[in-house]
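Quick one:
INPUT:
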């Protein structure tokens, strides 16, 4: 089971995530409505501390190629996690930055999850099912309807689906058993307060996620 620790804002938290075996780390940039938003210069310093075998992910609400280009040229992330996108933008990113993986975040709502991600997933490397806030970003700490997430997973199968939204050490095993995702993503669920991670919770989350056989 792949694990991503997201919303990282401090070097010591990056180190804790890496030391406990995370597969990926996420940094929020160019997303002024997010309480975990980092200036690019700060994000660059944090990404420079990420070891070569751990995936660095730039998480953004930016939906224009100019801003995306700036993120890529400044940070050189391994992947982009996009919360605003359309087919045209995705094709442009693929053309200009073919070396960077694309993760399409999609909100799971009360209705059927007929979303931009389910229509555009073939232009991505993975789809991330999340619980979105009013500003269209994740990090809410709220669980969504996992039955709908299962529907989305089946719709895009065998394309990878990453589960996010309200996960924490105490429920990640149950979530994995229910949804059977490719990977899981957590931010709020391993925090002491906004932007400050709890290293014990990081360790427990990763251990619990890896105990499940799917």
């Amino acid at each position: 089971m792949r694990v991503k620790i997201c919303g990282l804002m401090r070097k010591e938290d990056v180190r804790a995530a890496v030391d406990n075996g995370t597969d990926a780390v996420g940094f929020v940039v160019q997303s002024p409505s997010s309480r975990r938003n980092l200036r690019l210069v700060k994000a660059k310093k944090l990404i420079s501390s990420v070891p070569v075998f751990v995936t660095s992910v730039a998480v953004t609400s930016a939906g224009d190629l100019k801003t995306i280009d700036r993120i890529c040229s400044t940070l050189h992330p391994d992947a982009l996690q996009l919360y605003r996108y359309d087919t045209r933008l995705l094709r442009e990113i693929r053309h200009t930055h073919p070396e960077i993986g694309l993760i399409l975040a999609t909100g799971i709502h009360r209705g059927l999850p007929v979303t931009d991600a389910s229509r555009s997933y073939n232009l991505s490397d993975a789809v991330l099912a999340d619980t979105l806030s009013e500003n269209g970003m994740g990090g809410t700490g709220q669980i969504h309807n996992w039955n709908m997430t299962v529907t989305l997973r089946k719709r895009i199968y065998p394309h990878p689906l990453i589960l996010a939204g309200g996960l924490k050490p105490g429920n990640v095993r149950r979530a994995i058993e229910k949804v059977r995702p490719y990977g899981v993503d957590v931010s709020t669920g391993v925090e002491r307060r906004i932007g400050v991670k709890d290293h014990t919770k990081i360790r427990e989350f990763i251990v619990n996620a890896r105990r499940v056989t799917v």
